[in-house]
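Support request, please re-run this one:
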Amino acid sequence: MNLLHFIEQFPTEQSCREDFRLQREHEGVKCKHCSGEHHYWLKAKWQWQCSVCDFRTTLKSGSMMEGSKVSMRTWYLAMAFMSFSKKSISAAELQRQLGHPKYETVWRLMHRIREAMGNRDALYQLQGEVEFDEGYFEKATSKHVKLKRGRGSQRQAQVAVMAESTPLENLDTGVCSRQCRYFKMKVIDDHSADTVTKLVKESFDEKSIVFSDKSTSYIDIAKHVETHITEKSDGNTTRTTLQWVHIAISNAKRTLLGIFHKIKGKYLQNYLNEFCYKLNRRHFGERLFDRLTLAVAKCYW
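Re-run finished. Output below.
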């Protein structure tokens, strides 16, 4: 879908509300009171009623729009602009495009959409051959506080980067290479073995084959996956074994620095959510908007 198609398909607030109702029913409405999944639609009330306990769920309840007073069409326009842009769009630019009077409202709306992107990707685990390493991203810090320099500086946020890849053989040359499919990026508080182990359990399938360097923090990875292959960290490892991880880190840094001035550490994860969500769906083309509406509509009760 492009902007012209969007305008034709969603010309009014009512058209957006009707589409969001269909998206929520496609994802499945869940009762907050009894967790029941069978509902029927009350057209006069614009609510669902649980078939078990008669608890009613409004159009936005349980979704990322819950509690928002922003109109449905504004939400749809925001999702459209965020999905139409290959990289991202700043809140100031989106505010200008929407003609909205308050920057803070647009900024909060965008972060809710980014949270929905992260929640959607969190539903899936990486499997097969997976590269694992860390990257350091600069974050906004106070100018009046003396900070440590270099690795471990308070200016740097530590991010675990994971890339699922598939081995492909060139039939002409016989050379086997790995084509990347999915990525995950997770901001971590420290580089301890416990933190890494918890992340591996959440993100990797037990039958995965994990490639990493020989960091001492990775000593327990082998206990939770099928195979753990380590190589000494050097230039060759970066270019071959951990190729896609470092390409993702470079592209993410370039994307964030090219659009946003400074990113606070507590919001960095949301920006990385958007980067990974779009990267994982880079072949979706005009269908990206439709996938994003499903992510926002999903109930996470």
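The longest strand covers residues 156-169. The first helix runs from residue 3 to 9.
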